[in-house]
Amino acid sequence: MARLATRFVCTECGAAAPKWTGRCEACGAWNTLEAEAPSPGAGARKAGRAAGRGVEFVGLAGETPLPERIPVGISEFDRVLGGGMVQASAILVGGDPGIGKSTLLLQAAARLANAGKRVLYISGEESVAQIRLRADRLGLRDAPVSLASATVLADILGALESEKHASLVVIDSIQTIWDETIESAPGTVAQVRSNAFALIRAAKTQGFALMLVGHVTKEGALAGPRVMEHMVDVVLHFEGDRGHQFRILRGAKNRYGATDEIGVFEMTGRGLAEVANPSALFLAERHGHVAGSAVFAGLEGSRPVLMEVQALLASNAGGSARRSVIGWDSGRLSMLLAVLDSRCGVKLAGHDVYLNVAGGLRVSEPAADLAVAAALVSAATGVPTDPETVFFGEIGLSGELRQVAQADLRLKEAAKLGFSRATLPRRVAGGNRRLATPDGIVLAEYGHLSDLVAATAGRASRSGDEI
Question: To the nearest whole number, what is the mean pLDDT of the chain?
Fold first, then answer.
């Protein structure tokens, strides 16, 4: 019998190659090929495969009831899930080591168990004694959660088959589960893909919700084959800097709800506490009348969030200027600096530029362009932005200001937190619906970035400074 050859599978796209190369030919990613030993008997099964019975096709028309949801009991968690867990769904939660994934899931498991649901918590990384110590620290010792420490897939599946009334099963983590029939170590491509498929199939068959904890790579992406993200119904990223107390639970995929929703938590000595008003928390330590600061009225999913954008300029006598960005896209910062230079005459080439989104939140929407530009112009002139003004708007390469979605929600959040003015792109006459401006908010609308620079320059000249 010929020896089965080992193949190499890309962890990014799942493409297979007969030998290892530094670069995946399918997706172009570097150093992503991992060895995968084929299962014995695969060729024989293929040769002896019987003819299938076929599948039944139906039309699009028809009545399908909405999926039944089980609220976790943590409102920020339920917000990201779209209102709660769906029965027979698979949820993948990823995040950096020590960020609080196990803490969050243990708190969620305890809430469900206290509500009368059958909850199973299986850990392959910690012993039962370690989980109990964490539960003591979080004040959850009395929650009726069923704990187990196991790593062998067959043992876990055997235990789950006897559970007829389980509502939630937590696996912490999928990289520690081992299938004895696969000749590779736990955490490899073959193990993770096969074990995830087996556990998801058990969840779909028996009707319980499955939560899988996934490790992340040093780049912040979920470790293991990307096909695992396609198999599950929901992908959640638990983000945050361990130097900050804030944690962000972000939905990257959700087959039963909206994506890009966020839940905000604060890490405390008693675990993760919900933050009902993240805007107030992100702005709690903001000091007004400081040059280089602007408040951005952002939107995370369907939730408006106000946050502070900070910019600092430092003279660079020689060499290439440095661009350091935390919480925003560095490429977009380079674009804005080029627009300020070419279209508005603000020369920053001889300065090191440092940009930070305070609070540890990462912003991805282009609506932050105007707030970043206002912070940069403020830092260049030394004139603080108005502490009662929020900024939002997209900036094009010609310097024009473009409108962004959900301006009403952004203004409403600003008014709720006591802001009295908003700087935003000018509305096109007759081209857009009427903007519902909250009482107490005065709008400053600009059509081009140079208008904002001119207004700031006017304030600088009155105070004796120059750009």
Answer: 87
